[in-house]
Amino acid sequence: MKFKIFILLFTLTVAPSFGQEMTSKGDQYFYGYAYEDAILEYNKQMQSGKFITNHQLLNLADSYFKTGEYNKASKLYLDINKNDTIMSAHRFNKMLQSLAKISEQERVKAFLKSKSNSLESELVENAEFNYLLQDKKETESVGFFIFTLNGNSEFSDFSPAFHEDKLLFSSGRKNKSKRIYGPSGESYLDIYEADIEKGGNISNVNVYKGVPDSPFHKSTPYYSSTTGGTYYVLSNANGKHLSFDEKGKNALAIGMAYEGGLFRFLLKDLSTSFYYPFYDEASERLYFAANFDDSYGGTDLYYVVTNNGQVMSEPINMGPRINTPGNEIAPFVYDNSLFFSSDVFYGMGGMDVYRSNIQPDNTFSIPVNLGEGINTKYDEFGFIIRPGEGHELMGYFSSNRPGGKGNDDVYGFKVSGKPGPRTLIFKGTVVKPPYDTPISDVEVKVFDNDGNILSQMMTDNNGAYQVEIPYTDVVSMKISKDGYSTFTEKYNPKELEELQKAPSQVQLVSLEDIVREKEDKNVLSLNNFYFETGKSNVTIAMTPELDKVVDAIKKFPKLKISIETHTDSRGGSSSNKRISEKRSAAIKAYLLANGVPKENITKAVGYGEEKITNNCTNGVYCLDFLHKQNLRTLFVIDNYDELSN
């Protein structure tokens, strides 16, 4: 990956001294990419007693990192992080990478936990989720068949792209029309084309004629049949001369070459390099990698909105769900998933390939490592995929793993299904009816079939939640907040599949909305219902109100109620007492038969005419409607204070 780092992860600098302040020989070697020489000079500087700044110590740590001396790199990073505040997010990632590479993953996890309040919440969540998948062995091989391509050379070959029945890729192989690029010792990059044979191997490798000739870099192509052209990266140049900004930097631009021969720049800035263009026909987004001021670390993924190939927006950072303190490159969208590579610290080594599912609302799921089927402790990037022969999928990627022909090689693969661990996403909003007012700080828990908590979180200020877990066949969800109803649901595989298609909206009823004060008691708010005169059986006319009680206890599982039934003063006192007791017992029996746990019913009592609410007592003449005011059943909430706090 040496060549890719020089060319595609850092802004090109033909004369490094123009862009960096040099105070020592170590600096000169470091900014000239001569890391081993930089290590020698920085150590000489310290041994001679000369002052060395923390910036130079970070350069030394970076040099150790680049040359694979991760023990020394991690020690320097940790010391500087402890004693100074100049550590960038990108170097923070290198520090954790160094620790991970010397088998101190538990220390990385502990460090991450200690800094969780100061880090992006998405970064912490992404790391914890990928560590969980690793612990569960979810990232182990998923049936990849990987093969080396015949068309690789002894030089760097990388960034494959489909061109109908052909394969495009970038290469630093010698080319008589190209000069040697100093930092790599290879030719300036060019784009090549090869025939894809049956089985996926390639033949007839030639320079691609679909883009204008240039003596400088042309690389990382993407061909779009929809727009009828090739997107690619090229050096900013004016004819046979490179173009520089005021600091002496030469950056990479993204251009588009149409099949009719027309060329135009799409993204160009003399001070900023753009890498790895990918055009998504469905969304008309042009994705790419760059390192702007709003980067979360090193190189981030961005997109611009286009219309008929024209760029219609400023670059939009894809945010901390995708971008990390590391480098993110090589975006590719297939089957509603974004594939890309990252060297974030929780990966398997260097650059790893990740997959993030694109949600119905165009947000992204947690990126998951594709695992050992593709990724190694080396670098894997430039992943592309499409349907192959039969029911399988096929594609290509680049890697600097041992056994190849050059610095980077292009590999082919076949796989039976969509790569990456299966996951489940529970996403939605929690609202209060009737106006769907968002409810914040609601606890969302997901359980397995045995009742073990798989994940939990709180809704944000917009009532939104998103919980992701490794795939499992049966899952239960509980959504609750003090003073509100509780939502519980159990999902089977078919229901889980439906749940992935769109965000959910969960309504939680406030306890205050179903309670009213009556006779100095907190009771369930119901419409009046009446037993037939002299009878105690539950009638069909009464069941709608009793079903509201069942529903209330289902929504508020901790609810404790007392059933109190009253009569009017007509009839004998003892008979009224007996019939009211029978009526309370009948209501209790109905509730129990309809799923109310017996623990939720504190008591069921009948008071007869003991608690008349008006003057219609024995011997007093009253109209029927006044007597009817005393015919009532109350469902008294015994633990209202406990539930409402």
Automatic annotation (TrEMBL):
Segments forming domain OmpA-like: 519-641
Pfam families named in the record: OmpA
UniProt keyword terms in alphabetical order: Cell outer membrane, Membrane, Signal
Transmembrane segments: none
Family matches, as InterPro entries: Bact_OuterMem_StrucFunc, CarboxyPept-like_regulatory, OMP_bac, OmpA-like, OmpA-like_sf
Keyword Glycoprotein in record: no
Signal peptide: 1-19
Location(s), subcellular: Cell outer membrane
A GO cellular component entry from the record: cell outer membrane
Descriptive protein name: OmpA family protein
Organism: Zobellia amurskyensis
